[in-house]
Design the sequence.
């Protein structure tokens, strides 16, 4: 009896015997090993797609727009900086104000109008797989369209093609402090979003969305808690409307043995009697294995590490794409920003709130144009750290005191120092830092890195 690869993986010993096929011990071991490999490849490949969908579900779970949710094709205008209670996206940025929108471009393009401004402002346009399709900076009207759409645009409207029908837009607007919030709100009021059929007059009224209590959850926790059946049923469904890239075809041919792909119907029995154990073991090892696999994309900056190309536009770097989705969904490409990270001090010891540190800047992070920088502290869960003064980062607008030689020392500690001007609060457990540099000056970055020095 001739068996296909899918048949071979599906046949248990009893089923094989019933078909007149005897699987030798080595064949059983090979099949189990191949199932595990394919399971991991399938999960890493589809994880960002499923996480984006979960994030969209939470973010659009609203009848009308608010500061953190809005129906599809409507703006979510944040009106204040995020804080320790913000748990929708891991590693949130707290020195810019976000305006987000979840678009459905199935029927027609959505027109996005970018206003003119003299501050850092850009709009990242992501597809459903977390790849950056475009970054909008120049003022004007843009038609965000599914790449298969055929139609005519009004004069002066620039077309932005996205390869999926689900689109996530993230506008980042630099904020210079609480007193600057009205200026940011005025800028947000000049942003426009509407269907092509309503341009330029605008829609008569934005349609009302819907709210369901069961759609209130933390997206990453929801996805990590899914069973294999739930996860791959979701992935297969999403791939129907948000299709894989052409470059994914070789991998999808392999994953067909697990019935993973657009139009496939996943059957958890293919994982065998130990499938549940394999699944739990994979999830337990996920973060550590991803870091090990993604190490080849890491770039050193002193004791700091940042992830370089192809971040934000991943191609076939599927493990890298999933690691970034877990650590910070919606990462920019390196021409827009880099995010150096450290979880150790200058001696290599883990950072912990049981100790006190100095972050020493001989020179400030180099940027160009409207670029800026910040340092933000996060707990082990990758969320902001609650603290008595609600300070989550220091940046180039923090009014930090300088030393006589012009350098700057930032205190990292759980307890407040006598002078809190240069204090960045941390947790009493392990923590890590992100140094965000927007519009980095690549000609000056090599001589820059600031050390984190333990205070004895």
Sequence:
């Amino acid at each position: 009896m001739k068996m296909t690869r899918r048949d071979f993986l599906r046949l248990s010993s009893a089923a094989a015997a019933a078909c007149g096929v005897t699987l030798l011990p080595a064949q059983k071991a090979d099949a189990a090993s191949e199932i595990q490999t394919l399971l991991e490849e399938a999960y890493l490949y589809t994880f960002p797609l499923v996480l984006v969908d979960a994030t969209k579900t939470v973010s659009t779970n609203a009848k009308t727009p608010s500061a953190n949710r809005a129906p599809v094709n409507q703006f979510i205008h944040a009106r204040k900086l995020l804080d320790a209670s913000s748990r929708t996206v891991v590693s949130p940025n707290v020195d810019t104000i976000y305006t987000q929108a979840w678009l459905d471009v199935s029927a027609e393009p959505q027109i996005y109008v970018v206003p003119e401004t003299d501050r850092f402002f850009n709009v990242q346009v992501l597809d459903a797989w977390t790849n950056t399709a475009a970054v909008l900076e120049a003022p004007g009207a843009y038609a965000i369209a599914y790449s298969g759409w055929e139609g005519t645009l009004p004069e002066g409207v620039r077309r932005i093609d996205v390869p999926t029908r689900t689109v996530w837009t993230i506008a980042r607007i630099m904020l210079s402090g609480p007193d600057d919030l009205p200026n940011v709100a005025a800028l947000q009021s000049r942003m426009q979003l509407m269907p092509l059929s309503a341009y330029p007059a605008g829609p008569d009224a934005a349609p009302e969305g819907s709210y369901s209590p069961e759609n209130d959850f933390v997206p990453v926790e929801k996805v990590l808690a899914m069973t294999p059946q739930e996860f791959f049923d979701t992935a297969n469904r999403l791939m129907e409307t948000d299709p894989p890239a052409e470059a994914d075809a070789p991998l999808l041919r392999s994953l067909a043995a697990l019935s993973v792909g657009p139009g496939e119907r996943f059957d958890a029995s293919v994982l065998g009697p130990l499938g549940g154990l394999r699944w739990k073991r994979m999830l337990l090892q996920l973060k550590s294995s991803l870091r090990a696999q993604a190490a080849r994309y890491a770039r050193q900056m002193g004791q700091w590490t940042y992830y370089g190309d192809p971040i934000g536009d991943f191609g076939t770097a599927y493990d890298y794409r999933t690691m970034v989705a877990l650590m910070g969904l919606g990462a920019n490409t390196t021409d827009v920003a880099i995010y150096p990270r450290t979880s150790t001090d200058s001696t290599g010891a883990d950072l912990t709130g049981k100790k006190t540190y100095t972050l020493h800047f001989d020179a400030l992070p180099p940027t160009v144009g409207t670029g800026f920088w910040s340092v933000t502290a996060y707990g082990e869960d990758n969320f902001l750290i609650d603290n008595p003064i609600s300070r989550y980062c220091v940046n180039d607008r923090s009014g930090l005191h300088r030393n006589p030689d012009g350098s700057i020392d930032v205190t990292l500690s759980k307890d407040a120092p006598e002078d809190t001007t240069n204090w960045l609060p941390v947790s009493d457990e392990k923590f890590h830092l992100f140094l965000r540099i927007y519009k980095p000056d690549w000609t000056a970055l090599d001589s820059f890195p600031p050390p984190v020095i333990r205070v004895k």
